[in-house]
Amino acid sequence: MPDKQQASFQTAVHDDFKRVNECIHEQLHSDVALVSKIGEYIIKSGGKRLRPLLVLLTARACGYNDYNHIPLAAIIEFLHTASLLHDDVVDQSDLRRGKDTANALWGNAPSVLVGDFLYSRAFQLMVGLENFKLLHILADATNIIAEGEVMQLMNIHDADVTEDDYMEVIRCKTAMLFQASSHTAAILSKANPELESDMANYGNYLGIAFQLVDDLLDYDGDAEAMGKNLGDDLAEGKPTLPLIYTLKHGTGDQKTLIREAIEQGGRDNIEAVVEAVRSCGALQYTAAKAQEYSAKAKRCLNLLPEGEFRSAMADLADFAVARSF
């Protein structure tokens, strides 16, 4: 089912997505060879490209038939890619999607600086759209995402982080760019205020569901399919929802185990931690929470006209929670 759903939302905007890729490669050009080299490497390193796809699907679902959704989708991908370059430096990651990270290959300084280049190139493209409302939303979103990253950094090794704290971090860190993707596409399409609001909410709910499943897969996924090791978040001392739930509902021994694991980081007790989150119902709780947000996202589609693009957006919400990678 996930493969069929993925094909649905990719096929619906196949031609548009080819144009987005062309725009991305064109805009990655720099007279500084290392900028182009690292930029091309990270862009080509895989990934589901859900955020630019969301721009294209929302624009088409809202009846947009011009060209500017193409550079808008490229803007979103540049913002996302820049954040990945910076994240990998902050997290000291060596692997992403099964490949060496840019910082592992070229070092931290070039990775941070090329991330800065991608941010600035995104804002150059934004200015080219000549739409102040779009610029305002994307500037705000970029700022909130940065705040979310700092909030997550502050929570590392803190076993007292609450579920509300966690949900606020993922709303800022992950869901905000999904929200900006669908919201700006609706604005570009000159959607009425009610539909514009629904499209912004769709992206927010979709992004939350997506991150919840990411955190679930960290303890119940296929390491090879994901291109990273199980327990990566635990190794970094990140208190995600499966751990937070176990700290609240687990046995005394399980609570002690999880608290020590968060506070110390590393993978020394990864097998025991995985067993604890599985046996106390944390994974089922996280999955149910993701399904709840996926359902909220699909209810936001009711004002869209029936058709291929609305169906693809519903499939995208289903895929976000049914995926295994």
TrEMBL record:
Its cofactor is Mg(2+). Its EC number is 2.5.1.90. One of its GO terms (biological process) is isoprenoid biosynthetic process. It comes from Endozoicomonas elysicola. This is Octaprenyl diphosphate synthase. Gene3D superfamilies: Farnesyl Diphosphate Synthase. Keywords: Magnesium, Metal-binding, Transferase. It catalyses: 5 isopentenyl diphosphate + (2E,6E)-farnesyl diphosphate = all-trans-octaprenyl diphosphate + 5 diphosphate. InterPro entries: Isoprenoid_synthase_dom_sf, Polyprenyl_synt, Polyprenyl_synt_CS. Belongs to the FPP/GGPP synthase family. Supplies octaprenyl diphosphate, the precursor for the side chain of the isoprenoid quinones ubiquinone and menaquinone. GO terms for molecular function: all-trans-octaprenyl-diphosphate synthase activity; metal ion binding. Pfam families: polyprenyl_synt (PF00348). NCBIfam families: PRK10888.1.
